[in-house]
Design a protein that fits this description.
The protein is of the alpha/beta class and 256 residues long. The chain has helices at 29-44, 77-96, 113-119, 145-155, 157-166, 172-177, 190-202, 206-220, 225-230, 239-249, and strands spanning 4-10, 13-19, 51-56, 102-106, 109-111, 123-127, 131-133, 169-171, 183-185. α2 links the parallel β3 (51-56) and β4 (102-106). α1 (29-44) runs parallel beside α2 and α4 (145-155) crosses α5. The longest helix is centred in the middle third of the chain and has 20 residues, at 77-96. The chain starts with a strand and ends in a 7-residue tail after the last helix.
Length: 256
């Protein structure tokens, strides 16, 4: 069966599911294009939604790229560049540009493309049996520059070197110790933990979440702090800001 990226929305929560039966949800070229389309749509609907969870189907997150497709394009420089710069980075870039909080539900295999997709998420929760790596040196090629920069930033340069140069595969506990994961749960509890986190995020001020993501993205991209400060306080008269302060003073729960 061909791979798909599914989007489901319930009230203010969205769920993105990677699905490629029989291939541990390895990303096909079509799936990368779908990933971009899904997150472009979510960004356009950011005012309606509060949080997005990202998961894989069937007990695995994503085992990497769909290697069966590789002989069709990887041996031509222009085709290879187009794949990584437009298809892969198109999907990852759309995730990074999304102002909604993203929570990753990581189970089973999280390899290569899976590590990259997880690196685009704000909160990462994994099952205790999850495995992480990018052993593409066994396939004879390096990680593309933008993707390597992303993984090194989120997983740490030392971890990226170990994955890429040794083809190391690391467990969930080790990835938490290295700061990549926010939590490790028994496999049977991961989905419930992620759902609870999404609901907690959804109960908070949605504009504050979007503004925090915009600020962190700008700072991470190296924008001068003065540029970021110039527009940072435009929320002053916003209804959510007023409601949050009023609710605190009235000793009640805010309604955002």
């Amino acid at each position: 069966m061909p791979g798909r990226v599914h989007l489901a929305i319930e009230h203010t929560l969205a769920r993105v599911t990677l699905s490629h039966p029989g291939k541990f949800n390895a990303m096909s070229r079509a799936m990368w294009r779908e990933l971009k389309a899904v997150f472009t749509d979510l960004q356009a609907r950011r005012d309606e939604l509060r949080c997005v969870t990202v998961a894989g189907e069937g007990g695995h997150f994503c085992a990497g790229g769909d290697i069966a497709e590789y002989p069709d394009f990887r041996f031509d420089e222009d085709a290879l560049r187009d794949f990584h710069e437009n298809e892969v980075w198109g999907g990852l870039g759309a995730m990074l540009a999304c102002d909604l909080p993203l929570v990753a539900q990581i189970e089973g295999n999280c390899m290569g493309a899976g590590v990259e997709i997880a690196s685009c998420c704000d909160i990462r929760v994994a099952g205790s049996a999850a495995r992480f790596g990018a052993p593409i040196a066994r396939l004879g090629f390096p990680m593309a520059p933008r993707e390597a920069q992303l993984v090194a930033r989120e997983a740490g340069a030392a971890t990226a070197r170990e994955m890429l140069l040794e083809a190391a595969v690391l467990g969930a506990t080790e990835m938490q110790a290295r700061g990549f994961l926010h939590a490790v749960r028994p496999d049977a509890e991961v989905a419930a933990d992620v759902q609870a986190r999404a609901q907690r995020i959804a109960a908070l001020a949605p504009q504050a979440a979007r503004l925090n993501k915009q600020t962190l993205r700008a700072l991470g991209a190296g924008q001068p702090i003065d540029t970021v400060v110039a527009t940072a306080y435009r929320y002053a008269d916003h209804a959510e800001h007023r409601e949050g302060i009023a609710a605190f003073l009235a000793k009640r729960q805010p309604v955002f």
